[in-house]
Amino acid sequence: MSATLAALLAAQEIIVTGQGLGSTKGDAAYDVVSIDRSRIETSASGRMEDLLRDAAGFQQFRRSDSRSAHPTSQGATLRGLGGNASTRALVLLDGVPMVDPFGGWIGWAALDPARIGHIRVTRGGGTGALGPGALAGTIELTSATPDQIGSVNASIAYGSRESIDADVTVGAKLGGGYAILSAGHAQGDGFVPIVEEQRGAIDRAARYRQSRASARAVMPLGEATELQANGSLLVDRRDRGLPFTGNGNVAVDSSLRLVGHGDWGWEAASWLQLRQFSSGFAAANATRTAVNRSLDQYRVPATGVGGRFEIRPPLGDRVTLRLGGDARRVTGRTQETVFSTSVDRRAGGRQDVLGAFAEASFEADPKLVLTASGRIDHWSIDHGYISEFSRTTGLATANARTFADRSGDETTARGGIAWSPLGALTVRAAAYTGWRLPTLNELYRPFRTASDSTLANAALNPERVRGIDGGFDFHPLPGWRMGVTVFDNRLEDAIANVTVAANTRQRQNLSAIRSRGIELDAEASWREWRGILSWSHTAAKVRSNGAAAPLAGLRPAQTPRDQASATLEWRRGDLRAATTVRYVGKQFEDDLNRLTLDDAVTVDAVVGVPIGRGFTAELRAENLGNARVEATRATDGTIERATPRTLWFALRYAVR
């Protein structure tokens, strides 16, 4: 074969990326944290929500992970904009939203790090082109490619409390594209959530059993167009450590994305989410010797469908223009039996959001980049209802009602500037607005935790954020980076659980949550060593009046003042070791700041030793010092803890 013919064939080779159109130069104006595949592989827990704590400021409503937490408490937020369990960050997998269509929480157990190639966390609201819902930031997960995982990547681990964690991922190049299949299973006897000195005869270990599977195919449809198809299944069963408190979640996600990489870059995506959730609730007596069944939320079906389109006209190397739109519809309802009042209840509704966006990035010169975006969204909430009947008489109760349909429009914008006076230094500043529609869960579903009840509120308004931030990124050497950001956010009409009576709260709109702070991130690599550091300090205060006036000046519930994470890695070929130290500051369980959750320091460690023929033996330790990480504190003083010390022995197998 002649050199000319070989060059011609190489030029005609079709290369698929498996990714979307990618970021723009204007993203340099925002506060971004990247977590690469190498770091993902050294997680002691193997849990996505734990890895995300590398970006200090990330938090869930509870400190527990998806093995022991109640699924409805596992939202995601950043920058101290907490206060309830709904997600205030936009979470995407390959460009598709992952937020639960009914409740706004995240099914973290489905997002297995073994199949993820890269994580990108953008702190700060207003996504512009990526969709609505990013009040606190955006978390973008990208699936791994065969080059990252090899043809086979599998592991099986045995850990404390009869725990088993196994997964296998298989990748193959097919017809110019590739396919990846992944499956996993985790189960364990779990730990007793109630702290030891408060346990009674009714307390037991919180068992869990979780199975997951996913398939992904990427194939070329021409010289510059590729099709990406994703599908996943999660079957999640957990117990809350008390009789009658089991919960389950079945989640099916599927998506199609077409990406055009030609002169006119474009992409079109559609997705479908199917959910089936159930949960039981119970209340213990003061001595924890007896338990009463209080609520059986036996069926919560929900559906989310959506689509998105974007086009990038060819305007030269210095200008990137993004134009497009997106749409989403969610429907869902709760079906439950309330034993404490002998009532059968159904409640739910439907939401629609239709939006359009434009975003431009302009490289004024090699040292200066400007970016601006805007979007307009039309939303509607309709078919809302509560159907409630007495189990004794069969008659409708006074709570049974239908709610008036509502709709509105939201206009938001984001802009920033990045200036590089020196090659290693970039100074940046950004301003943004964003919004979030209250979830069907917040609008219509009451819930109960131990002896504490939280009421729904069908009259909730959307949340809206306004914020600014500024800072710098310094790259003195390859592999070395330090970033510092200061920020000031105001979340108006913030939805919080407000105390309205003894042991009773209701979801209400506060006037605002004001959150200001500083974030520091650093990374340094030297030969076989790498260090990663992240720290956030947040001063968040509630602004309120009317019925919520007692909350004015208090800190939002579940919002620590300080969070920090530090990881030290050593790697020589397949031989590796890593340790991670994390700190979470004191925070309050409740809106009135009367119930305190103590601060905590945890240490994780991982050691992997290759033993030949593609096998690696691995020792992992979570919370090595067995620190007491308090997750909840009830009004009666009962304390639940998060994951205690957990030791693992794992065997990994990889074929590159």
TrEMBL record:
Domain TonB-dependent receptor-like beta-barrel: 247-624
Keyword field contains Transmembrane: yes
Pfam family, any one: Plug
Major location category of this protein: membrane
The keyword Chloroplast is annotated on this UniProt entry: no
Gene Ontology molecular function terms on file: siderophore uptake transmembrane transporter activity
GO biological process: siderophore transmembrane transport
TonB-dependent receptor plug domain segment(s): 27-138
SUPFAM superfamilies (alphabetical): Porins (SSF56935)
Stretches for region Disordered: 62-81
Protein family according to the UniProt entry: Belongs to the TonB-dependent receptor family.
Protein known as: TonB-dependent receptor
Species of the source: Sphingomonas montanisoli
